[in-house]
Amino acid sequence: MLRTHIDCDLETLDKLNKIYSWIPNSKSIRPSPQIIEKKKHLIQQIELNWRSSKDYITHTIFGEKYYVSENFKKFTRPEYFKLNRKWSFQPSMFPYNLECGDTNHWVLWNYDKNYDYDYPEEEINEIIKRNLFYHTQIGDPFEFVWYKNPKPTIKEFYHVQVFWIYRIVKENENENKFNLQLGFLDIPEINRILEK
Question: Distance between CA atoms of 83 and 52, rounded to whole angstroms?
C-alpha cells in the first residue's frame, strides 16, 4: 500500500498520477475558482476580525478559546492555552480541484513548530496513519501521500497536504492484476517508474 511522502514538483505529480489516478497532478493541485474566491473572502475576514492569522488558526484548527480586544479584534492568549493535542488532522478548508472524486484532501497541522521545521518522514507517516485509523474507524483500507506546500499561505504552523483514498480488497482476483489496478506498488517500484 502507498503511505508515504512524495515530492510536489509537477513532473513527479504527473508521473505518479498516471499510476495512481487519485494523486493530484499538475492540473489539479490548485483549488477551483470558487474555492479561491472563498479563500480570498476568508483572508479578508481574518484581517478584519482577528489580530492575526495565527490567532485564527489557533482557535479554528486547535480549538483554543479566543478573546476580543478593545478594537474588537479576536485573539488567543498562549498563556492560557490548554492544548490537549499538538496535532490536528482535518479536511482542507480549501480543497484542491482533484480529478478523482474518491480522493480526500486533508491537512495535518502541528502547533509546536512553524512551517520551516521538518519532522522526520516516518513520524509524519505514522501520525497520518493513526489519525486515519481514528477518523475512518474501519481498519486500514486506505492509502495516502503527503507533501509540504512550496508556497504556504500560513507559515506560523507546520502543516502538510495529505491526499488519501479508501481501498476495498476483493479476494478472488488475480493478485498481480489486482495490485496493478489498485496501485499497490512498493516504494522501490515507484522510484523505478519515476526514473523513466
Answer: 19
Taking the alpha carbons at both ends of the chain, their separation in whole angstroms is: 21
Pair 108, 135: CB distance under 8 Å: no
Encode 127-145: b = buried (16+ Cβ within 10 Å), e = exposed: bbeebbeeeeeeeeebbbb
Q: Is 37 exposed, middle or buried (0-12, 13-18, 19+ CB in 10 A)?
A: exposed
Separation in Å, CA 54 to CA 14, 51, 78, 135, 183: 33, 8, 11, 25, 38
| Extents of the domains making up the chain | 3-30+86-195
Helix (H, G, I), strand (E, B) or coil at 142: strand
Per 3-state DSSP, the chain is made up of helix, strand and coil in percentages (nearest 5) of 35, 20, 45
| Full-model pTM | 0.82
- Residue at 192: amino acid letter: R
Mean pLDDT for back-to-back runs of 10 residues, the chain (196 residues): 93 95 93 95 97 94 92 88 79 93 94 92 95 80 92 92 80 39 48 58
Q: Confirm if 133 and 140 have CB atoms less than 8 A apart.
A: yes
∠ CA 24-27-32, nearest 5°, is: 90
